[in-house]
């Protein structure tokens, strides 16, 4: 019985080593490929334009608020307490509007970014799958990952770039 368990353990070790060696693993410079894709560059440019427009809109509103604050501060001693209180309420309302504009711009930017990058990521994932299947890779891992302690396997980056026409 003891011989059988030792034999079984030895067989399991040989099988597990054989299975580990049979797996084909490649790395991929995901960021390098993404940065080389024209679709990503266009999405980045569109997002920058969108963000610049939103920031300009918010800055215009903030500058108007600053001008009113300065005007109201200078005129405050000459105005009645009721007028100053109304002006404070108006400034507070403007400040709330600016905060709402910033929140909305942030949400709009995130939605636009997600929509812009989704087709780029899908295209990359489809090509990685195609290259992995064509080359028999069991796993393709991001070469930029800090999880790697040592890597000397196949680099799939050139094959993916070639498939993308980059």
From TrEMBL:
Q: Which residues form the signal peptide?
A: 1-20
Q: What Gene Ontology biological process does one annotation of this record name? A: protein stabilization
Taxonomically, which superkingdom?
Answer: Bacteria
Q: Which InterPro entries match?
A: Chaperone_Skp, Skp_dom_sf
Q: Which UniProt keywords apply?
A: Signal
GO-annotated cellular components:
cytosol
What are the boundaries of the region Disordered? 70-89
Q: Which Gene3D superfamilies match?
A: Skp domain (3.30.910.20)
Matching SUPFAM superfamilies:
OmpH-like
Q: What name does this protein carry?
A: Periplasmic chaperone for outer membrane proteins Skp
Q: Known SMART domains for this protein?
A: OmpH
Regarding protein family, the annotation reads:
Belongs to the Skp family.
Q: Which residues form a coiled coil?
A: none
Q: Name one GO molecular function term.
A: unfolded protein binding
Q: Which PANTHER family match?
A: CHAPERONE PROTEIN SKP
Pfam families in the record: OmpH
Q: Where is the composition biased (Basic and acidic residues)?
A: 71-89
């Amino acid at each position: 019985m003891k011989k059988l368990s030792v034999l079984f353990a030895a067989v399991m070790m040989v099988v597990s080593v054989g299975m580990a060696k049979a797996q084909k693993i490649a790395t991929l410079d995901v960021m390098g490929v993404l940065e080389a894709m024209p679709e990503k560059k266009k999405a980045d440019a569109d997002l920058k334009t969108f963000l610049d427009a939103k920031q300009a809109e918010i800055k215009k509103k903030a500058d108007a608020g600053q001008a009113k604050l300065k005007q109201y501060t200078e005129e405050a001693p000459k105005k009645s307490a009721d007028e100053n209180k109304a002006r404070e309420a108006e400034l507070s309302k403007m400040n709330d509007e600016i905060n709402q504009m910033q929140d909305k711009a942030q949400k709009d930017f995130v939605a636009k970014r997600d929509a812009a990058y989704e087709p780029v990521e899908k295209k990359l994932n489809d090509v990685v799958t195609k290259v992995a299947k064509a080359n028999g890779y069991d796993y393709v891992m991001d070469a930029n990952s800090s999880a790697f302690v040592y890597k000397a396997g196949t680099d799939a980056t050139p094959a993916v770039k070639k498939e993308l026409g980059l």
